[in-house]
């Protein structure tokens, strides 16, 4: 059964807000599935959706960081699957899912990582100073989940290890203590990540990464792992020529489906913890554009200098624009570009010249 059957076509692109969901997808759900679990700083409702009747309870939340919307789109697709009673019979019978599609609706509206008080909600797990943090904790306490899925986006700079492959999807089983011991909850999360990596390698070989597991009890994932609940960090990353992250959205959907299937069918223990550590740790090796031999443009640079450019995401009239910025000029050995141009190659130089905004930026770097 193909992904296209369940993709929610009413919500696309990078700018996804509560208002988008209310105008389209949210209103299509039965009201009995939806609860208001809190309000944001600016008074926007924080909704949860509960579906299924099984004993295995799974809590997931997306857009804790308002400008990280890819996993929200995948959650909508997942809900479309769950509404198909025949296709989702096993999951609905074995599991109860509680989903918060947008935890930080103010940040989503402003397209910022932080909430309206300029607080990173993923650094507020201990003090609970923000209403959004309190809402999530209250849901956690009341629902008492068996598993938690913490859904995020990551920047385009990440590679899957020391390779020229982007980390299109990354995972982490957060530490539960400063010693980073493999506690029972961490172990279960690791096994689930191995299950997801196994299926993703068939779709995006060598493009799955693993985050560093430094412990921080102010982070929500670490805090819930400390409570003995297997918790997984999902990070939706870059796929080639996919700045709107519609392909990555599909990969997150596939990962979520495999995670839930493993829980529902009691196959988690079939996956080896040691395989978790074979997933390469993320490195920061990518620029959005890498320009080689820019000296031929009459720039006052060394022969081996390259120019590394990354896009800054800017919200302009409800559209996210990608504005190029020069990040570094130097040898940049061991770094890669999602797009690479060698100015000695006349055809590549023509292509680069057609990117007027980028070329102007490079010329201004004289």
TrEMBL record:
Keyword Protease annotated: yes
Gene Ontology BP terms: proteolysis
Domain Peptidase M14: 7-263
Sorted UniProt keywords: Hydrolase, Metalloprotease, Protease, Zinc
Gene Ontology CC, one term: extracellular space
Cofactor(s) the protein needs: Zn(2+)
Gene3D superfamilies: Zn peptidases
Catalytic machinery residues: 235 (proton donor/acceptor)
PROSITE patterns, A to Z: PEPTIDASE_M14
GO molecular function per UniProt: metallocarboxypeptidase activity; zinc ion binding
Pfam families, sorted: Peptidase_M14
PANTHER family assigned to the protein according to its UniProt record, in alphabetical order: PROTEASE FAMILY M14 CARBOXYPEPTIDASE A,B (PTHR11705), SLL0236 PROTEIN (PTHR11705:SF143)
Family of the protein in this entry: Belongs to the peptidase M14 family.
Protein name: DUF2817 domain-containing protein
Record organism: Flagellimonas nanhaiensis
Lineage summary: Bacteria, Pseudomonadati, Bacteroidota, Flavobacteriia, Flavobacteriales
């Amino acid at each position: 059964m193909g992904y296209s059957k369940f993709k929610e076509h009413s919500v696309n692109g990078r700018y996804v807000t509560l208002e988008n969901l209310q105008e389209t997808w949210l209103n299509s759900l039965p009201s009995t599935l939806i609860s208001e679990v809190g309000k944001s700083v600016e008074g926007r409702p924080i909704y949860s959706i509960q579906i299924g009747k099984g004993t295995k309870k799974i809590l997931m939340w997306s857009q804790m960081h308002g400008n990280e919307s890819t996993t929200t789109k995948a959650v909508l697709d997942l809900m479309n699957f769950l509404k198909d009673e025949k296709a989702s019979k096993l999951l609905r019978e074995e599991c109860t899912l509680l989903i918060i599609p947008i935890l930080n609706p103010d940040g989503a509206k402003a397209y910022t990582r932080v909430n309206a008080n300029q607080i990173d909600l993923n650094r507020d797990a201990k003090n609970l100073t923000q209403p959004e943090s309190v809402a999530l904790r209250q849901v956690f306490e009341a629902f008492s989940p068996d598993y938690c899925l913490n859904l995020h986006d990551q920047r385009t700079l990440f590679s899957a290890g020391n390779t020229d492959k982007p980390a299109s999807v990354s995972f982490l089983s957060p530490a539960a203590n400063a010693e980073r011991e493999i506690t029972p909850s961490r172990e279960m999360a690791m096994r689930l990540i191995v299950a997801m990596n196994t299926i993703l390698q068939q779709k995006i070989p060598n493009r799955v990464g693993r985050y560093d597991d430094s412990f921080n009890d102010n982070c929500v994932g670490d805090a819930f792992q400390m409570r003995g609940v297997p918790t997984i960090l999902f990070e939706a990353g870059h796929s080639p020529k996919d700045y709107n992250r519609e392909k990555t959205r599909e990969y997150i959907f596939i990962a979520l489906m495999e995670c839930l299937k493993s829980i529902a069918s009691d196959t988690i223990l079939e996956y080896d913890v040691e395989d978790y550590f074979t997933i390469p740790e993320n490195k920061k090796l990518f620029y959005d554009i890498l320009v080689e031999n820019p000296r031929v443009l009459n720039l006052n640079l060394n022969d081996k200098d390259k120019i590394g450019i990354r896009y800054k995401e800017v919200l302009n009239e409800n559209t996210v624009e990608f504005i190029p910025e020069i990040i570094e000029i130097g040898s940049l050995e061991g770094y890669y570009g999602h797009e690479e141009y060698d100015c000695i190659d006349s055809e590549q130089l023509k292509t680069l010249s057609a990117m007027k905004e980028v070329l102007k930026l490079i010329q201004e770097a004289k």
